[in-house]
Amino acid sequence: MNSVFKVNGLIAINKPVGISSAGALNFLKKVWFPIREDRTYDSLDLSQKTIQEAKNKEKSKRSKAQHLPWKVGHGGTLSYKAGAILGFSSDTLDIDGKITEKSEISHITEVDISNVIPKFKGEQVQIPPIYSALKVNGKPLYYYARSGKPLPIIDKKRSVHIHDIELDNVELISPKGSDHAKKMIELDNNLASFSKFHFSVSCSSGTYIRTLASDISSELGTCGLLYSLIRTKQGPFSISENGVLELSDAHKTKHVLDLIEHSTFVHNAYFSKNS
Predict the structure, then answer these.
(1) How far apart are CA 52 and CA 183, in angstroms?
(2) Which EC class is this protein assigned (predicted)?
(3) Is the pLDDT of residue 107 over 60?
(4) What b/e sequence results for 149-171 when a residue is b if at least 16 CB atoms lie within 10 Å of its CB, and e otherwise?
(5) Does 45 participate in catalysis according to the annotation?
(6) Cα dihedral value 174, 80, 201, 217, nearest 10
(7) What is the pLDDT of residues 24-48, one digit of tens each?
(8) Active-site residue identified among 45, 155, 168, 179
């Protein structure tokens, strides 16, 4: 952006695959708030008064955030489009992990999957993946998994609610010629050669879709892992309503300002209705 604007509001972002939330924010900061070479910085006053003021400000932000009914972790409803591969599982329960299990799938039919999916509507008990951000003793579970340290003994089961779940489509592929296990090497480049099912789900915050895909596969008598996931709706924001920002459009000043105005209006209307 070449001009300077004073803007107060919020904006919903559709984060692409392959970049973390922090990475997306850092990208936007570079686009919207480029560092000027002629800018000078005052020395930071680290007096106790300044530190306490900063803590109070952060505490106030957290207090306000807890009242956002759509916010992740605060009782909001989320919607996803997901895809799972049958016959394989990994330590992360998704395509990015190390394959830990292979299982037969020749007995599974599309009718079987259609009959199993509705069973997962309503209250469900999940065990979070070991590669997750769930904190134990002040550290996320993935810290223990990545560092090789033993997982703390805790009751990891948690109750979640699946408001709605529907099967979108099924692709059952019979391996030909090459061994099914060998085909896993081609997973990143040849997804078309694997049996998959796709589903849409609306659920409570705290639901692990990786775990859901794995549990559905287990109910089918095999194992499975998540290979695609798109969050389509969170609270009042939906990617189908053209109200979210694509990172590729971050440089379009008018578009960004319009979205900030739109997102702020949508949020305030939703907040007033649900407060």
Answers:
(1) 58
(2) isomerase
(3) yes
(4) eeeeeeebeeebebeebebeebb
(5) yes
(6) 30
(7) 888 988 888 776 544 443 434 444 5
(8) 45
